[in-house]
């Protein structure tokens, strides 16, 4: 499992890295499972030794941060797909509930569920040419799992328009729309993220933890029922004939990522 | 009063899109008895067409320089009871738009004020030209814009909704975009027309069940569904606003405003 998601802890910063670069870090059943257990590991580490993890960075290896859900392998297995969506939804919840600030470092692309990972983090750093967004409806899929988090991040009005219109946007537009908090030249991505980490580490750890806990309580981030209902709805829509037909057409034109 | 036979609202349904056009430009598309009736009728027709699965997009647009200037105050001055009735009808229209099993796009080319702004705030996607303006300048006539709050608070957040409705300030399209009310801006009305037509075509080509499920889920998530925090209060808000519209304060302020506007006060 640890081959798909790597965890390193260094100078107060835990970095969680998705390592499925050959599939643009698409969220397969195995990858989501590995991510869930890594988040649980980080959470336990924060409880056990709060001085050792003061900030979490979420990153993706290779050209793209994360291409979204890898639906192809589970398309005709609704039970497995339902489980995968539940696990993703619960992983997003667990990532949100980490008691330290989280930063997504986003290169290349963050699509659908990948964009969901970006938006769930407290901060996100990207570059102008990056591609972010939620094209779910274009594939006949309902972005139910990511919707509550986008609504909290950018407000319900813009989130409604964005999710219904589908498609993707550039990193600079993602900044002006509020999906990410920083947009820098692509060769500055690591430096800018490191600077943000350094700045957050100077904050009082209990003060930051308290603020984050309050933010989560007040904006409804702890609502596990919404996360469960969202995954159920999403699985139901994907299993519908409309989505199955749309996805089948989509997968005919898109090369299969190599299995791993 | 007899309803004039002139059509003030047009509806066309073609290519998966229903387009509803408010067409009473000389009265700035004000919501009077006839326009209300025809607009309600058009929305009901769009709803039925969407239910039959023939369309997935509804565009609400208007002719002339204004999108909609709010209630037809001339009618309210003539018969004050009309005002409370208009409040209820406006509230019902915002619910119909929010519950429409199709994506409702507002194409705002000019002023969308008071009831006009309430219609816009209920829509799913708001496209505006730079000349559009938005606001709720209604306290001066003794009425409250509260029937817009259930959708406005969801759309622009509590802070923006508080400022817009209490101040009565009229904001331009850029500010409305910053607030989250407007999603896309076009330089002028013609470009807006082209951009909304393109958007409607794109939306109508998307898988409809996914769009409908997403809209319904968003109504749950942002609290505007009738079972949720904002939606469940809509009836109480409407009745309180309608009761306010029947008070002496409202009667006096409206008469005062009207006389001053006519230059006889």
Model description:
The complex is a heterodimer of chains A (260) and B (265). With 260 residues, chain A is α/β, with parallel strands linked by helices. Chain A has a single domain, classed as 2-enoyl-CoA Hydratase, Chain A, domain 1 (Alpha-Beta Complex), CATH 3.90.226.10. Helices cover 49% and strands 14% of the residues of chain A. In chain A, α1 (29-48) packs parallel to α2 and α4 (147-154) packs across α5. Chain B is an alpha/beta fold. Chain B contains ten helices and ten strands. In chain B, the strands form two sheets. Chain B has a six-stranded mixed sheet, sandwiched between helices. Chain B has a four-stranded mixed sheet with strand order 4-6-8-9.
Oligomerization category of the chains in this entry: heterodimer
Distance between the termini of chain B: 27 Å
Percentage of helical residues of chain B? 40-55%
CATH class of chain A: Alpha Beta
Number of domains of chain B: 1
| Span between termini of chain A | 11 Å
Shape of chain A: globular
